[in-house]
């Protein structure tokens, strides 16, 4: 019984399950030295954490996370991002895409101010293998 992961060709966890038996195409994730059919990790063994991992030098490690935007007084601030980062701005209430920006330099940052009432979301997607982050703000 334990956690099993299925990796894609790039070593990214595609699926993580807890089961009592081995599944075809899956390897067991363990917090100890790995044996045949196992993959070692030094991080928590649960489906959430495992689903956001990748294989690096034979060990499962957390995927890097994109810079996290944050809000203050109806403004969403995107901290410095690496070249190639995609920034998506959505009007959730109006169900529309307001902007998509691709950072063309390292340390690119941006600020979005919303004045119309509604809910807005900014997603930051640094180049692969980074995980996407987001921030939402509601304007009354």
What does this structure look like?
- This protein is mainly beta.
- The chain folds into two domains: 61 residues, no CATH class; 70 residues, Immunoglobulins (Immunoglobulin-like), CATH 2.60.40.
- 4% of the residues lie in helices and 52% in strands.
- It is built from one helix and 13 strands, in the order E-E-E-E-H-E-E-E-E-E-E-E-E-E.
- The strands form three sheets. The chain has a six-stranded mixed sheet with strand order 2-1-3-4-6-5.
- The chain is elongated and about 55 Å long.
Low-confidence stretches: none
CATH architecture of the largest domain: Sandwich
Contiguous helical run count: 1
Which radius of gyration do the C-alpha atoms yield? 19 Å
Strand order, main sheet: write it out. 2-1-3-4-6-5
Helix content: under 10%
Give the distance, in angstroms, between the N- and C-terminal Cα atoms. Answer: 50 Å
Mean pLDDT: 94
Main sheet attributes: strand count, strand direction, barrel closure: 6 strands, mixed
CATH class of the largest domain: Mainly Beta
Strand content is over 45%
Described by the principal axes of the CA atoms, the overall outline is: elongated
CATH topology of the largest domain: Immunoglobulin-like
> CATH homologous superfamily name of the largest domain?
Immunoglobulins
Order of helices and strands: EEEEHEEEEEEEEE
